[in-house]
Design goal:
single chain, 391 residues, alpha/beta, Rossmann fold, 2 domains, seven-stranded parallel sheet, six-stranded parallel sheet, 16 helices
């Protein structure tokens, strides 16, 4: 689960500036817990989940492949962080995607202390962290390894030579990924969409606990909000399909603001007309005001969950989204947003036109977003932990 707005690790802000008053179960602090996370190179959606776990389990050490300390929040860095031997490779935090085949051996070479509970937050290899037999393992799964199972074309489609060379490696990774799923006692998926993948790829059932969204921070503005532009908050990478929003704005002439960075900027900037503004990185405070004053949020890609649409809805704003993936679980068509069925410019424009013509109930949209509040996440996850530890 990537939070959609950040791009390069250098642009990722450190968190910790917001004071969130959440209630944690009393027994969390007394449990001997270890945490596992794929890698720590920036503050995306997965790291927001890890922060909540760090709050709830203040003594828990974290095991990860590698870390860029300056890009990680003080809340996470306050915990003991144990990295693999990959940490010693110069430039690892910038070029790690080229070393994917090394990840399985690196995670399995780590030797954590024994604990009663291991919680892995994983979209790649964290779920394969070794642990003692008497340690229960809960995997909060953002998705089965997306590089190996899905989105092959998005990652390698424009690199045919690399794609042909890496196919045997990905086949091996799929077998390894499925085999290491046996070391998990309970899978918890971030959405029904991901729960189906876990069943299809691992043959395992999973609970669903939606990721936490800080609805106390993402709040509606004044009733006189400008509605002067449409908004995209996303990393600028191919599978996010931000290009659709750019082309739609070129065609309609309505202003579009885009928050985020990434390697697709060089491709999209030349195609953008005068109505499209690229804002790059923006702080949460800036994004809050952008949410509050936009006409609608446009969410044109397929995501496993998608935190950004929930943030926008928490601010009382409707979302126009591609009708696939996690958006189907976080947006109510006609009540909190509008779906478009084809990833085409015309289909997107039709949905935007429908959204713009409707009078939306900001309070009702926000009420729906409250279902994904951080406290709901904590309470739901605790039920799964309690059931697991009672076995």
């Amino acid at each position: 689960m990537e939070r959609s707005r950040p791009g390069d690790a250098e642009d990722l802000r450190k968190s910790g500036s917001l004071i969130i008053m959440n209630k944690y179960p009393a027994n969390w602090k007394s449990q001997k817990v270890i945490l596992a996370h794929d890698w720590l190179t920036g503050m995306r959606g997965g790291e927001r989940v890890l922060e909540i776990l760090c709050d709830g389990f203040p003594k828990a050490p974290i095991y990860t492949l590698f870390r860029k300390q300056s890009a990680i929040s003080d809340k996470i860095n306050a915990h003991p962080v144990w990295t693999s031997y990959l940490q010693s490779i110069p430039g690892i935090t910038k070029h790690y995607k080229n070393l994917l085949p090394l990840f399985p051996a690196a995670i399995q070479a780590l030797r954590p202390d024994n604990a009663r509970l291991l919680i892995s937050t994983s979209h790649c290899v964290a779920k394969a962290l070794p642990h003692e037999k008497d340690c229960k393992h809960l995997c909060y799964c953002f998705t089965p390894m997306r590089y190996a199972w899905i989105f092959f074309d998005e990652y390698f489609g424009n690199k045919p030579l690399l794609g042909s060379m890496i196919k045997p490696v990905l086949a091996w990774l799929r077998k390894w990924d499925k085999r290491t799923a046996d070391g998990v006692d309970v899978f918890v998926a971030i959405s029904e969409h991901v729960r189906k993948r876990i069943k299809d790829f691992y043959g395992r059932d999973a609970d669903v606990v939606y990721p936490p969204v800080d609805t106390a921070n993402w709040t509606p503005g004044a009733s006189t909000s400008l509605n002067a532009y449409d908004l995209v908050v996303s990393a600028l990478v191919p599978y996010k399909r931000v290009d659709l929003a750019v082309k739609a704005a070129n065609k309609t002439g309505f202003p579009l603001k885009i928050v985020g960075t990434g390697n697709e900027y060089a491709t999209m900037k030349p195609m953008a007309g005068k109505h499209v503004e690229f804002l790059g990185y923006r702080s949460d405070a800036d994004i809050l005001e952008l949410y509050r004053n936009c006409r609608m949020l446009i969410f044109p890609g397929e995501e496993d969950f998608g935190i950004v649409p929930v943030e926008a809805q928490s601010c009382g704003k409707p979302v126009v989204a591609f009708a696939k993936g996690g958006a189907l679980e976080t947006i109510v068509d006609g009540e909190t947003g509008v779906f478009f069925k084809d990833q085409s410019v015309d289909s997107l424009i039709d949905a935007m036109t429908k959204c713009a013509s409707k009078k939306w109930d900001s309070a009702a949209i926000r009420k729906h977003a409250m279902k994904f509040d951080t406290q709901v996440f904590i309470d739901s996850l605790d039920k799964v932990i309690t059931r697991l530890m009672a076995k």
